[in-house]
Each structure stands twice: as structure tokens, then as C-alpha cells.
Amino acid sequence: MIPNFKAHPWHGISVGEECPDVVNVFIEIVPSDTIKYEVDKESGFLKVDRPQQFSNIIPALYGFVPRTYCHDEVLRLALESGAEDVTIGDNDPLDICVLSSHNIHSGGMLMEALPIGGFKMIDAGEADDKIVAVMKGDHAFGHFRDISELPQAEVKRLMHYFLTYKNLPDEPAKCRIHEVYGADHAKEVVLASMRDYASKFGG
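The line above is the sequence of inorganic diphosphatase; the predicted C-alpha cells follow.
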């Protein structure tokens, strides 16, 4: 009899056979969510992180790339890009937002996505890259191959979210985006986070 077993979404699922051109993504939250969910690192279940503050709602599907970790290799890329206010990776799996024209109602699912760029975000001294991707096969976004091809309004919407989602109105900014990068560097970040994962967890 096969035991009833659910793979841990961070450790038990591969990055994908076509990585880094196509990666598996575990979606945690969707644009309609008013609660920020994240995977509990110990159990693998989705848990409530916090209510979304004010009207700041994620403008894309959001989650992480399995079997990635942001530490020394991801930090190295940030330093090489000229970021001087960064001292460590954020010690989490690699964040990724996925653009899709489909109305997906809830997280907790896997999908394939194509990295097309990202944001070199610095969060209180931590390298906290946000990969931007498109859902594989999406009829409206699936043909994009680099963030430079996206409408600037779409890029600015994503940037605004990441620059403000942790802030209260009377607080100073906690995050900054050091640079916006294209598909080639996004794939470097994916590979660097895979090396960090292998150093931390093996495999």
C-alpha cells in the first residue's frame, strides 16, 4: 500500500528539468488575497503571515522557487552589482512573482514559469531578490522573454508593491530596489540560490 504522503513544497519538489529557463513555482498568495500567506518551513503547510496592510495588494501571483535559498551566492551577486548596504542573503527560498492573465483564486499550487527579469531588492541589509516571471503558456504574458518587453506600467506596479508592502504610512522606507535586471541575470540569481540551497541543505 502506498502511504499518504505530501511532498514539502520547499524541499520535496524539484526546481524543474528545464531550469533556469523554466522553473517550478509554489504559489503562496494571489492578487485577491487580503491575507499574506507563507509556507511554514517546518511543516510545509501554508500559514497566515499577516493581513495585507491598507490597500496594498500583490499585483501578481507570488511564491517561491523550490530547493532554492538566498545566502552567500545571492549576496555575492548583490555586491557585484554595486550594492554597498547589503551584508547577507535573506535566508529564505527565492521569491518569485508570476504574471498571468488568468484569474487564479487561491494559492497552495505548483506551476511552471519563465523568469524574465527581477528586482535587486535590499531589505534592511539583506539581499532579497524578487524574480519576475510569466506563467508558461499564458496567452497574454507567456510570449514575453525579458522584463524590458513588458509595459512600464506593469513593472512600476510590481516595484511599488515591493517598496511599500511592509510600510506603515508614518514609517521610513525599509526596502529599496538597487536595480531592475533582465532575464539573463534573473537566471543567474536562480542558479546562485540553487547553489546556496545545496550548501545549506545538501543535494
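Note on the example: The CA atoms of residues 81 and 180 lie 11 Å apart. The first strand starts at residue 23 and ends at 29.
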